[in-house]
Write a structure and sequence with these properties.
Elements (H helix, E strand, L loop, with lengths): L1 H6 L7 H27 L11 H11 L5 H8 L12 E5 L4 H14 L4 E4 L21 H18 L5 E6 L2 E3 L3 H13 L10 H6 L8 E3 L4 E3 L9 E4 L6 H5 L2 H9 L10 E6 L2 E3 L3 E5 H14 L5 H11 L4 E5 L3 E5 L29 E2 L6 H8 L4 H22 L1
Parallel strand pairs: 1-2, 1-3, 5-11
Antiparallel strand pairs: 3-10, 4-12, 5-10, 6-9, 7-8, 8-11, 12-13
Helix pairs in contact: 4-7, 6-11
Length: 407
């Protein structure tokens, strides 16, 4: 077709040989020009003093000193992004707890943290065939459902391409400067004195908190270190740690810090990172990919006994799962009193009191925090619209009087 179209551009009186030869010559020139352009495009641009974007990236990667303080600081600053430097943040909440979901949305938008709702599971609706081995008879259906929701989150990480996942429960609170707390934690973990292996180049380049752990617990209600390893810890100053008198209210946290050798002069000023041993609650913890595998293996494939936090703690104590615990925690449970505080107990349980509503969100309490994010956001959003209008009106009156005087 090309020959035919080219041939139509020439007079037919040229005769058959020329009519064929000229179009063929034109086609040859076109093909040669295309080949030349292709050859030029594949020439290494560095020979012209220009680096391609890929070559630039390779050069930058080889020039960055992964152990330098500048690189570590830049990596630690990922704690200020919308996922605190982790792959994603999920929060587990039963579908009907729209009250808690409202609260979590307010917290996330107020503090620039992106969280994804992850549906809780109703244990009473699970098939008996899906139950793991070893479940104790006293285990409540709600505890089974709580375990299954967490196990689903572990699977979620493994089915993704992320290195880490931060898991929240829906009844939490954090300190106002959470991102700064996590940045300090990152710097400490990048320069860890308690990890067992040297970090890989991949970790140094991409993992603000390293990847040598299975579980990083940043929201335990109570914790305690291994009695034979109280010399294995890392401690640093943190201006956002709860004060001494606040920490004393949670006896187990206070005694845990003392067992690591901290005195009252340090407690209330410093945070501590140690191998996880005895932990209570799963309010906020991160997992790595190998952590998700180990948790699924230990707490689903092999057996599950009675509650996700006690089973996880048992795995820490038995040495089957490798964890770190942050003490005092950066994240705490938020409590108002009454049946709203838990989905693992039924209304009327004597441990919950008589009220379903408790004292309400405005009178809630969070242990081990210096400044409550929930309290801060309420104050931040306070508005008196009509007082503002009064002020604007008075300002305008002043301007009018001033203008009249000048006239």
């Amino acid at each position: 077709m090309v020959l035919r179209l080219l041939g139509q551009a020439y007079p037919t009186n040229m005769g058959p040989p020329k009519a064929i030869l000229v179009p063929a010559l034109g086609l040859t020139l076109i093909i040669s020009f295309v080949v030349f352009l292709h050859s030029f495009a594949t020439i290494d641009s560095s020979s012209f003093g220009i680096l391609s974007s890929a070559a630039k990236n390779d050069t930058v990667a080889t020039e960055v000193d992964l152990k330098s303080s500048a690189h570590q600081k830049a990596l630690a600053e990922r704690a200020h992004n919308s996922t605190l430097g982790f792959g994603e943040i999920l929060y587990i909440s039963m579908p009907e707890r729209s009250d808690r979901q409202d609260a979590m949305t307010l917290l996330s938008t107020t503090f620039g943290i992106r969280i994804k709702h992850f549906a809780g599971v109703r244990g009473s609706e699970m098939s008996p065939k899906a139950m793991p081995d070893g479940v104790a008879k006293k285990t409540l259906p709600s505890e089974i459902g709580c375990w299954r929701a967490h196990a689903n989150a572990w699977r979620y990480l493994l089915e993704s391409d992320m290195d880490t996942l931060l898991i929240f429960e829906d009844d939490l609170d954090w300190n106002v400067n959470l991102k700064q707390t996590m940045e300090l934690l990152s710097l400490q973990m990048q320069n860890s004195k308690i990890r067992q292996t040297e970090p890989s180049d991949y970790e140094r380049a991409n993992a603000p908190y390293g990847l040598d752990w299975d579980v990083l617990d940043i929201g335990s209600c109570k914790d305690s270190g291994h009695p034979n390893f109280t010399d294995v810890f890392q401690v640093w100053d943190d201006p956002d740690v709860a004060g001494l008198e606040v920490i004393k209210r949670t006896k187990m946290i206070y005694e845990s810090l003392q067992n690591f050798g901290l005195t009252d002069d340090d407690i209330g000023k410093k945070r501590l990172l140690a191998p996880a041993y005895l932990t209570v609650c799963t309010s906020a913890y991160a997992i790595t990919r190998q952590g998700a595998e180990r948790l699924l293996m230990e707490m689903s494939y092999i057996e599950f006994r009675n509650a996700v936090d006690t089973d996880m703690s048992r795995a820490f104590r038995d040495g089957r799962v490798r964890g770190y615990m942050l003490t005092p925690p950066a994240i705490s449970q938020f409590r108002i009193g009454g049946a709203k505080d838990t989905d693992n107990r039924k209304p009327g349980d004597p441990r919950l009191g008589n009220s379903i509503n408790g004292k309400g969100n405005l009178h809630g309490f969070s242990a081990n925090l210096k400044d409550s994010a929930r309290q801060w956001m309420v104050e931040k959003m306070q508005l008196n619209n009509w007082d503002d209008y009064k002020q604007v009106r008075e300002e305008r009156k002043t301007i009018v009087i001033s203008d009249d005087t000048s006239a």
